[in-house]
Specification:
alpha/beta, three-stranded parallel sheet, two-stranded parallel sheet, 50% helix, globular
């Protein structure tokens, strides 16, 4: 096995982008833990940081958006975050306000809970002028 920094160098030497991705399918970590996770992704050489969490209560969506805002303010690597399920769908619509650079809409069957159909998502974003 190659040490992580050598692997990152090899990938970058091939002009490839590294997306570090972490999913929490059963809960939402604390704001602190999510910030540490996103910081660690960047520190290990990720070009893009992606985090998906499962909200258990409405406050969990706010925790993700707070961690997104802080990570975006502190780090240089772009952040993609989302809160899954119907409860978390709001993060797909307003995530970019907090610094998430990508959102997800479905064309056909959803690949994760709470994903919105692309036409509906586009209409929501246009209505909000985001």
């Amino acid at each position: 096995d190659l040490p992580r920094n050598i692997l990152v160098e090899k990938i970058h030497s091939q002009q490839k982008i590294i997306i570090a991705s972490n999913h929490h399918f059963h809960d939402t970590p604390s704001v602190f833990d999510m910030e540490v996770l996103l910081d660690t992704m960047e520190a290990t050489g990720a070009d893009i940081r992606k985090l998906a969490v499962m909200p258990v209560e409405a406050e969990d969506v706010l925790k993700l958006l707070t961690a997104t805002l802080h990570a975006n303010q502190k780090g240089a690597a772009p952040v993609i975050t989302m809160s899954m399920s119907g409860l978390g769908a709001l993060s797909l619509v307003c995530g970019q306000v907090f610094g998430s650079v990508v959102t997800f809409g479905t064309v056909g069957a959803a690949s994760a809970p709470g994903q919105l159909e692309i036409g509906k998502l586009r209409q929501m974003l246009e209505n909000l002028q985001i």
